[in-house]
Amino acid sequence: MAKDLQKLLTIDDDDDLRMIGALILETQGGFAVDSFGSGQAALDHLDGLDEGSLPDLILLDVMMPHMDGPDTLQKIRTLPSETKRDIPVIFLTAKCQPDEIVRLVELGAIGVIPKPFDAMTLSQEVRDLWQNHLQKS
Amino acid sequence: MTTTGDTRENKPTRSLTRFVSRRVLGFMVPALLAVFMVTYEFSYHSIEKHLNENIQSQLQAACKTLFKRFENTRSWLNNLSRNGLIVNSFVDPAGAGSYIPQLFKTLNVPGPQNGGHLILTDFKGDIIASNSNTENPNLDLDEAWLQDVLGGQSFERVNEQGLIIATPITINGLPEGAMILHFNPRTLSRFLRVSTINGIVNVASADSVLISTPGNQDSFMEGKTFAQEAHEDWAILQATIPGTGGLQLITAQEKEAAFEPVEDVKAAMIAFILIALGGMIISLSLSGRLISRNLRDFSRQIKEIREDNDLALRLSVSEITEVRELELSFNELMSALQNTTVSKDYIDKLFQGLPLPVFVLGLDGRINKQNSHAENSFTNREGEPLLYLQDAISRANLESHQELLVRDFGYRPGNDCDTLMHLPRIADRHEMEVELHQGHGHRKPCILSTTAIKGPCGEIIGFISSATDIEEQKRTEKEILKLAEENKLMARAIEEIDLGVTISDSQQKGHPIIFCNSAFTALSGREEEEILGHSCAFLQGPETDPETVRQISSALEDQRAITVEIQNYRKDGSSFWNELSLNPIFSRTGELKYYVGIQKDISERKRIDEMKKEFISTVSHELRTPLTAIHGSLGLMTVLKEHEPDSREKELVTVAYRNSERLKLLINDILDTEKLEAGAMRFEYGEHDLTELLQHCVILNTPFAEKYGVRFEIVGEIPGLTLSCDKNRMSQVLTNLMSNAAKFSRVNQTIELSVTRVPETDELQINVTDFGEGISDAFKQELFQKFAKQDASDDGDKPGTGLGLYISRKIVEAHKGKLTVESELGKGSTFTISLPLKEASARDETAKPEQADYGERPTEITYH
């Protein structure tokens, strides 16, 4: 099913980084971005959405207090709604050793984007991973 | 004791006087009698001998006298018979008739009381003439005299009719007649009277007494037949007088008369004996009575002591020396007895209370005494031999204690003191593994330890045996064997392991190494013999940190375990980093026995660590330069856009500036950490007023307070103290604590700063208390470590590097203080900086000579 990438949801505990990330994706990539400071806030938001207004992709920070990226992913994957639990996820992480990337992909992410991300290329990277994911499925 | 007493009581007793009298008289009377008998017999015999000799000599003298008298008479008669007139009368018998009778009438027989008849006869024996006026006696001459006389011999005859001495008268060699001298018994007695003789003299012919001295008894009377047998109580001697025709001289003395002196002596001796005995009895009874009176007093006093049952009572002393000595000795004995009784009680209690079974054995191996433990544990009874199974495995080998004594102590019954002392095999102590009977067929394996009890001259007088229960030991023996196997494995493992292992003996001076494995010899570059017996100190060298060595010494002194990283040296002088772990090994009694040292060469790790640190340090430093440019530029842009209307651009600049600030702080923290760890951080100590310092920090942290909507407040009284510290660093610590507190407090909460003094530990405590979320116990453990961040609270609003508390702790420790935390989840936390009130450090003395005002002991914190 070919679908255009329009709506993004970003989760990052660092306020500045969340703001910057959202700004880059909105201005450079032309995406509609909802951003949240914790996994729980994002889950609450998802829970309240109807099937039609769901984000196409989630950008998830790995290192977060309380509930980190992998935990949040686990929660998303166990949501009651099948469409909600199948939303593709890309991890953002400062720890970008190959082992770590493999681990994160195995958790069920469609890709990993290392921090610090480049404002010029971030949108394209997201779009590439999305395309890649679509082709695989 | 009791047995002896019974025997004594059963024996009949008698009084001392009677006892002594019986003993003394029983001996003395026979002795005196014996002396008496011997003396008596001796004097009797000597007197008898003397008497006999006396009589004998008298008899011989008398015999001699009579013999001479006979000889004289005979020679006179011979002369007469050769007288011319008489001879002539035979030639001229007619003429002779006229003068011969006249001649004979004038003739007197010589001798004492002469009275003998002188008769002249012819060869037929017819009387020719006589000197007697009376008629001639009937001479009754028989053939015998005729033969003798006519043969030219003289003739003597004696019989109851008297004595006849006849000599022949010869003419031309032919006998013509005879001269006869005749004594009738009356005249004969006069003739024979011998004056030299005392006592009774009898002259007898063959069978009858011719004469007898006066006063004789009937049997000695003249004319009676003499029978010696009839005179037993007479001392009689007989002698034949030669030349008298069988005359016998008999002397007799009545023995009674002769022994009169002996009888006197006998009487005197009897009297003496009686007097002696009497005197003895009197003196014995006197002294006996005297002594028995004292002894009775003595025994009465002893009885009183016994009835009072008081060993402390003492006897009053008597006036008799011996009794007094006895009583004094008794008193001394009582004192000794009192002491002995007390000590005996004590020893007995001790003996009974011994926590292991103990038997006291006699020389025959029988149990004289056993303590209650022994009695309760085993079936052995007093008075019986101590029986046991010697060999736990072959249980049939029953052996009596006596055999043991012979075998191991060389004792045999009857061995005297000297023999025992010189026995070559004699032992003082013997131990053997046995099984003792517990009754009901149960047996307990024990170590029976036997010691000889010795008398004053070293002779064995008994044995003492104690049994140690080894049942548990036996049971664990198998396990021990198993353990030994495991130990072999462990020893192998220790030998093979890559870590250096040493064991040092902590009970010897200098803690010499007594074991090391091959990894250690390789690590230290030394041979085993260069290691064993030496202290670990040979590993130290010029670059070894003295502070680490001091830490080790202190741990050894406190008998603590310690793990340090220390620079050590091999034998060839090359150095290596050693991760040394020392662990004390204690004995079961809690005594320090060994230290086990585990050594690991961590040179490589150290090198990598150093490289890492250096890398981080370099990188951080290198980062600072571009960061400064970025930070400066962004700061400038922020200032420039301050008065511009809000725009996306302005917002981005603010974000960029804020994050470059964060980066700057992070790099500073990393560099601080590196400095602190390398010991390279410099502290600029100065005297700072405590109140001022706190107020300074409150002002410094006001932006934080505003940001998090909290309030800092100094509570309580702040003591007027001067704090000797690096003000900036101390402010850094306080700021860190205060910013943390602000971060974890809720809006409008107050954060309290307070100061307390702890006199017990001489400490000053600065407390930063918040009433926020608190810290979990798990996190408290790692709170002061590097990069420690609590997930729960470190969200985006509350940024941190995770190095703040680590750096704070290090700074406080550099001030010889402690940083601690107390916290309860949901209620808040209190961070406390504890600093010593007094401290005499070299730094204070040298760096601050002006501090002399504050007293002899320079302190970090002083009053003002």
Structure, described:
The complex is a heterodimer of chains A (137) and B (864). Chain A has 137 residues and is of the alpha/beta class. Chain A is built from 6 helices and 5 strands, in the order βαβαβααβαβα. Chain A has helices at residues 15-29, 39-48, 69-77, 82-85, 98-106, 122-136; strands at residues 7-11, 32-36, 57-61, 89-93, 111-114. Chain A has a 5-stranded parallel sheet, with helices on both faces. In chain A, β4, α5 and β5 form a beta-alpha-beta unit. The longest helix of chain A has 15 residues, at 15-29. Chain A is globular and about 35 Å long. The model of chain A has no long low-confidence stretch (mean pLDDT 90). A 5-stranded antiparallel sheet of chain B has the order 2-1-5-4-3, sandwiched between helices. In chain B, strands 11-10-16-15-14 form a 5-stranded antiparallel sheet. A 5-stranded antiparallel sheet of chain B has the order 18-17-21-20-19, sandwiched between helices. In chain B, a hairpin with a 5-residue loop joins β19 (562-569) and β20 (575-586). In chain B, α21 runs antiparallel to α23. Chain B is rod-shaped and about 250 Å long. Chains A and B meet through α1 of A and α18 of B.
